[in-house]
Amino acid sequence: MSSWFPTDFLFGAATAAHQIEGGNLNSDWWAFEHEPGSGVRDVSGDACDSWHRWAEDLDLAASIGLNSYRFSVEWARVEPAPGEFSSAALDHYRRVVEGCRIRGLVPVVTLHHFTLPRWMADRGGFESTEIAERLGTYASKVGDAVGDAIGLACTINEPNVVALMGYLLGVFPPKVADRGRFEQVSANMRASHHAMVAALRAASGSFPVGLTLSMAEMEAVEGGEHQLARALEHLEDAYLRDLTGDDFIGVQCYTRLRFGPDGPVDIPEGARRTKMGYEYRPEAVEHTVRRAAAVTGLPVVVTEMGISTDDDAERVAFIDEVVAGVTSCLSDGLDVRGLYYWTLLDNFEWSLGYSQPFGLIACDRGTFLRRPKPSASHWGRIAAAARGSSTSHGADR
What we know:
single chain, 397 residues, alpha/beta, 8-stranded parallel beta barrel, two-stranded antiparallel ribbon, 41% helix
């Protein structure tokens, strides 16, 4: 294992509340899943029952050999009605954060991961003129409740995906396909991020705050240069340029995207596909890390990388190739501070339901029995080996 990993480098696994907790009845996604014609393959239901089994999940993450865990707080639970904040929900997430610390896991807390409270969705969601203020208030409550124990905080998970899928492609709630509304929501996303950063910095504790962005290795085929430039601007650069003053940029990458004269084109003929249908492209992670660092000038945390596959040996190989790319970034002096595999548990993959096995750990949907895959111990061995051979590189950051 390369000595380029800093002593404080974070090796973790990531999850999201709606995808693992279960019973998130008060969210817009729960309502969306149950709408006729939504196109959602499965309802989330009990998910992995992690609302009750969170301690078991933390035990597993620690036993694997990881030193960090990324999870999200569910706004719909914390503020079930406008201005009504649940002490019980905040206390629950306090126990999760403290549980991470007890187990030697640096808690990385995401405040918004795709879902909204139903009442906020009914008020227009991310099109609402009050969304930034509402998210700022929510962030302040979370910060006051758990901020003194947070390791890192992520404001909004993949705002570009929320805007793209919900307001341009019409696949996620509210199923809109309107470029003007997409651009307005994108602007509101950035405003919400800034409001949340300010609120978190004013709350209890002192911890790095950043945004996580879905990024891809993007390239043009013949005649696709205009479409490529347009995609880069709306999906990445408009966000990356807007992060001055943040403490880090969270990069989330899974594949490469290609553009022709009329827009996105399929992966190259004969190329490997993952179970998601993505091009198998672990080297894309290195590409996006370098791009994010160059555009923002910020430290980078790879807050998500992973693969959906039934072949765990393929997952192991994917991880190894990603690690090699991140090691290359570090050896070139890039300030990369963490690497998180998506995801800890096989879980609810939004419109695709339970059909996509991204997890290091299988979860039986009937019994909730967790069964670590060989890739889980492999990822842990990488983390342990890196810590064992770490230098002081970056330790004074």
